[in-house]
Amino acid sequence: MGQASPSATAEPPSPAQPAPLPSASLAPENLPPEGPAPAPFSLLDFNASGTKFNVDSLMRVLRDGRHEGWVLAAYPDPKTSRPLIGAGVSLDVPAREHVQSDSFNPNMFLEPSSAQLWQAAGLDPERLQSILDQFDRNLKTWKKKNYRKKIKTHKLPPELTEAEATRLLHVSALQAIHNARAYCRSFDQLTASQQMALSQLVFQMGVNLEEFVQFLAVLNGGPRLQDAALREGAIESQSEHWRAVQQTLIDSQWAKRYSSRAVAVIAMFDPDYVEDPRAAERRVQVVLRPPSKHKKPRVQPVATTAPQSRTAMKLQ
Q1: Is 17 exposed, middle or buried (0-12, 13-18, 19+ CB in 10 A)?
Q2: Is this structure's pTM higher than 0.85?
Q3: Residue ranges of the alpha helices (H) in the chain?
Q4: Residue 123 pLDDT
Q5: CA–CA distances in Å: residue 38 to residues 95, 99, 110, 129, 156
Q6: What is the SS3 assignment for 73?
Q7: How many C-alpha atoms does 108 have within 13 Å on its Cβ side?
Q8: Contact predicate 83/76, CB 8 Å
């Protein structure tokens, strides 16, 4: 998951309350015969105990244009060109194995395919294939740049209803929260805003969050690899710990590339975020600078002697 979305300055209206999820299970016996089967439990058995924020709140944030945005038709990811829909839900990801490498974390990762999430949301598998076929035709005709322009100009006819896209976002958000627990040993002890921030990162990056080695090490209490002072001694206080967690994200290429989104997410790791969210964002914004755009040096024109006119040549 994860995407760059059409820009927006105001938060869109809250999404409709998700419709009740279907009774179908993601247990292995109910999975289509594609790729490796996910772990033997169901997204629909999601246990909200220990989660301190409302799932609908996460969904509202993801629909915000500063994060994932909201498009009711398939559109290309800005980096990979692969199809996304709704709030950046991937449409063609295969099921995969995601090994839990942290021996201190008993929570396992769940990585179903896009088709399995689609079915868990109660949507027709044949419709998914039809949307993917149309996406491939559109991408071939329009190319990625023109395809994405149609998002901003609202020229993509909807392929899902509001309710259908909301159900798909709902099960995708549940998966992100589940995997956030697998990334963080102390997920249940985090504040509500910290839990939501980590869940956003998982939703946006999926398995690519594994590449944020330094962030995960500090989040789980490990040493900050590039800071000698913290490497020599334990983190002295909770506030120092969370500043170190934030700094690992501030130093990332993700934060520099998606600075507006990053400011909002990184600020939520501040343990005092709930007291003044704007102040928490300003503290991040002060130290997070987008990459500088190197301007090409201006080439000074070389002075030359203008050629003599034919008249002047005759007079000589």
Answers
A1: exposed
A2: no
A3: 55-63, 114-120, 125-152, 162-183, 192-205, 213-219, 228-232, 238-250, 253-257, 259-267, 277-287, 310-315
A4: 96
A5: 7, 11, 6, 21, 33
A6: strand
A7: 13
A8: yes
DSSP output for 151-218 = HHTT-SPPSS-HHHHHHHHHHHHHHHHHHHHHH-TTGGGS-HHHHHHHHHHHHHHGGGGGG-HHHHHH
**What are the residues whose beta carbons fall under 8 Å from the beta carbon of 304, sequence distance 6 or more?**
none
pLDDT (0 to 100) of residue 239: 87
Q: What is the pLDDT of residue 10?
A: 33
Report the alpha-carbon distance of residue 136 to residue 143 in Å, rounded: 10
CA distance 165 to 68: 13
Q: How many residues does the chain have?
A: 316
Structural domain boundaries of the chain? 34-185, 212-291
The phi, psi pair for 86, rounded to 5°, reads 65, -120
Return the C-alpha torsion angle 275, 62, 94, 115, nearest 10: 130
The 3 state secondary structure assigned to 9-22 is CCCCCCCCCCCCCC
CA 179 to CA 110: how far, in whole Å?
Answer: 7
pLDDT along the chain (316 residues), means of 10: 38 35 34 38 59 94 86 94 96 95 94 93 96 97 94 91 96 94 95 97 95 96 50 63 96 92 96 96 88 54 44 38
